[in-house]
Amino acid sequence: MLTREANERLTQTGPGTPMGNLLRRYWYPVATVNELDLEPVRAVRLLGENLALYRNEQGAMGLVAERCPHRGASLAYGIPEDYGLRCPYHGWLYSPQGRCLEQPAEPASSTFHKRIRIPAYPVQEMGGLIWAYLGPQPAPLLPRYDLFVSEAYKRDIGITRLPMNWVQAMENSLDPVHLEYLHGGYTNYVQKRLGKPPAAIILHHERIAFNVFEFGISKRRLLEGQSEDVDDWVVGHPILFPNILAVGETRSPGFQIRVPVDDTNTLHYWYNASLREPGDAPQGEIPVWENPYKHPNGRLTVETVNGQDMMAWLTQGPISDRTTERLGTSDKGVILYRSVLLEQIEKVERGEDPLAVIRDPDKNRIIEVPREKSAHYVMGGFIEAGGDVQAEIKLDYIPAKS
To answer: Which CATH class is domain 27-133?
Structure first.
């Protein structure tokens, strides 16, 4: 168990907090390109800060504090112009760097505008997402992980807005053994309730292991009956520090991106990819879809693998009370992840770059993420039973046939 103070150190995301200072050393997606095409000025929230994201008619983007310092109106309803974003209330114009350029109601000779500045942050477009960096300068490079930049894949993006702390989703990614029960025994219970036959073959974890590497932590599992040359033991699933889980195998890989909106809200992107067929034209617009975590009646979705995971995260509460938990030997991945987070906080406090911060352009041309070449169970899911996957389970990809 953790003390209350240790739990706060792990979960607080705001400016000036130890974890908030660490998280501000990384880039995060705050919107999809599609969303900004539909509405060129949008309110976004990241790491406890309310911001206005915009794109002008020439395609240039900016990200500034949402509140206008004049009378407090929201710049998320502002007018994007060539030189910045204009407040809808009295027309104050702010540059992408946060400088006030114009105050139409002030005398022409006034220099008042030169004394006004609002927080402003760099943004970049990559892989159909708009990424933002809220930390100190010089900003590190936006990591060019393979699925975001490779032309070999077709992609789609799912979005879920979860009312809980981001660490709960990440800890789940360092907990391989929940595969057995949540996606095995519980799946069969759900199927039984639906009047369906069992859909999961439950295999016990013989071994689990974790390795810290240049870009995060790799989790590995060996299930009963598997030999040690299976990809899931040799390669495993990387957790790209601090907030991305890499899933799937080379034909149908994916990323699960957990964006810390604030202490009690997480923006979750399901970034799915599949290999393009030979002769396919390059993909144009990347489709975006909503992935709900609950049914219209308010009951949490447990009929899908992803829904089961979200149920487990959400039912811990907005911020999990880790002062009451009792961890076992199978939780060593969770313990390692917390330890690495706290170690990186200390590195930042010493003025060092934390894990997975990239500044070398040669290293960042394209970062190939280690992943399985074949798989015998679904992403975060369970072994296929009887040859046909049950449709109600909505598996993320079809397992490889042995």
So the answer is: mainly beta
